[in-house]
Write a structure and sequence with these properties.
Distance between the termini: 28 Å
Largest sheet: none
Structural class: mainly alpha
Number of helices: 4
Strand content: under 5%
Number of strands: 0
Length: 73
């Protein structure tokens, strides 16, 4: 049995789960993505911009490299 997650690990995992959901809709417009994620456009925009990110794939992938699958070695 592995050790339980620490609070910082839980917070990081939740942050990554949110970013994965956003990343899945990044090629849509912000309003369309917000509707798919069942949140307001203002809330989604605020969430993105509060993390010093922009609404584009490169911005998210640079800040969260875990979003892109690693190539098999």
């Amino acid at each position: 049995m592995s050790a339980p997650e620490t609070w910082p690990e839980i917070l990081r995992r939740h942050e990554l789960e949110k970013m994965r959901a956003i990343h899945a809709h990044i090629d849509s417009s912000l309003p369309k993505a917000a509707a798919k994620l069942e949140m307001s456009q203002a809330a989604l925009g605020s969430y993105i911009y509060s993390r010093d990110l922009r609404w584009n794939r490169a911005s998210l992938e640079a800040a969260y490299p875990e979003l892109t699958p690693k190539e098999a070695e």
